[in-house]
Design brief:
Number of strands: 10
Number of helices: 7
Oligomer: single chain
Structural class: alpha+beta
Largest sheet: 5 strands, antiparallel
Number of domains: 2
Strand order of the largest sheet: 1-2-3-4-5
Shape: globular
Distance between the termini: 38 Å
Order of helices and strands: HHHEEEEEHEHEEEEHH
């Protein structure tokens, strides 16, 4: 997935085309947006509209018609699913660095990503969360290199709503979310990673599942992502 390793202005559209298979040219869609809305946001909404299917499943973008800067020029454009976290850009910042804040706190904190990178990051993260073909497994830290064979780490930093160790990876035809296991999953002295593999609906994920002896699991039913805040199954 070159569009995730060498990020450019068309990376979101290229990724959506690869993942969902039916994205057309962004120029084919006309969206009404105020002059203050950055081009990256307009392009993201256009690409998402052309996908023909939902592309967000947990957190959500602010609709173009609702985008408006506050008195300080901060434009909130992305919202956490519980409305407890928000992301924005400073319209006076030429680089369009992304900032985040918690609902109960007023201050903005830099995320380390610029707008185009952040939008691609969230698009990829949401693709894992809502993937039609995926599974989650737990891997001992000593075997992580073997588990992630043929995968490359993406440059995205963890969101403020995630543990800082969370990392996204990609191979030629799959995505992986690597995260610490929820409390209670690792036994005394165990060092585990939780890996969620996801692939496009028309791609086989069996060869990844076979690394962990999970072929029958993927045939029986798609597994959901085990998010860190969920309780252990015992």
């Amino acid at each position: 997935m070159d569009e995730l390793l060498s990020i450019g202005s068309g990376s979101v559209g290229r990724f959506l085309r690869r993942w969902y298979g039916n994205v057309e040219s962004v120029s084919d869609v006309h969206l009404d947006a105020s002059l203050h809305v950055p081009a990256e946001l307009v392009e993201w909404h256009a690409a998402a509209a052309l996908a023909g299917v939902p592309v967000t499943f947990q957190d959500r973008p602010v609709a173009l018609r609702d985008l408006a800067p506050d008195s300080r020029g901060m434009l909130e454009f992305w919202v956490e699913n519980q409305n407890s976290y928000f992301w924005a850009v400073d319209l006076d910042d030429d680089r369009l660095q992304v900032f985040s804040r918690e609902a109960r706190e007023g201050g903005w904190t830099g995320t380390g990503e610029v707008l185009g990178e952040f939008l691609l990051h969230c698009t990829v993260r949401e693709a894992v969360i809502g993937g039609a073909s995926k599974f989650t497994t737990f891997v001992d830290a000593s075997k992580i290199d073997l588990a992630l064979e043929s995968c490359e780490p993406l440059k995205f930093v963890a969101l403020g709503t995630e543990e800082p160790q969370v990392k996204l990876w990609c191979s030629e035809d799959a995505l992986v979310r690597m995260a610490p296991p929820p409390t209670g999953y690792a036994g005394p002295g165990e060092r585990l990673w939780m890996l969620t593999f996801a692939a496009p609906a028309d791609a086989s994920i069996e060869r990844y599942a076979s690394r962990f002896g999970l072929e029958r699991l993927t045939e029986a039913e798609p597994a959901r992502v085990e998010l860190p805040y969920e309780p252990p199954p015992f």
